[in-house]
Amino acid sequence: EVRLVESGGGLVQAGGSLRLSCAASGFTFEDYAIGWFRQAPGKEREPVAVMTTGGTTWRAGSLEGRFTISRDNDKNLVYLQMNSLKPEDTAVYYCAATLRYYSDMSDYTRMWAYDYWGQGTQVTVSS
Fold first, then answer.
1. Integer Cα distance of 45 and 111 in angstroms
2. Which of 39, 75, 85, 117 could form a disulfide with 125 if both were Cys (CB 3.0 to 4.6 A apart)?
3. Which residues pair with 10 in a beta bridge?
4. Can you tell me the distance from the alpha carbon of 58 to that of 60, in angstroms, rounded to the nearest whole number?
5. Dist CA 1 CA 91 (whole Å)
6. What is the pLDDT of residues 28-87, one digit of tens each?
7. Other C-beta atoms within 10 Å of 14: how many?
8. Contact 25, 2 (CB under 8 A)
9. How far apart are CA 17 and CA 14, in angstroms?
10. Contacts of 109 (CB under 8 A, 6+ apart)
């Protein structure tokens, strides 16, 4: 059974940091590109960061310098380090995995590109 389980969310004050984890099981993790998405109340789900199997990364421009994606293939884990958090970062954060290869990196920012999704973890940033 394929599973993606996010953890590490919680309540943090503005300016603080959190590290989200996504634990994968049931598939050959290193063969999959991983994406982080988030969905704020009343808004559409949006891409946050992506890491391909080759280590290429993409990050939403507005998050440059604050969010970093990384992965540990030995532990089947993907991380999202979030620093200098702002109230507008409040959302449910999801990780997703895809076996498919896309030559255009922007395709990895689309929800349709992913085969598997986690259940999400809530991040709340207070002002």
1. 8
2. 85
3. 123
4. 7
5. 27
6. 999 999 999 999 999 999 999 999 999 999 999 989 889 999 999 999 999 999 999 999
7. 13
8. yes
9. 9
10. 35, 47, 50, 58
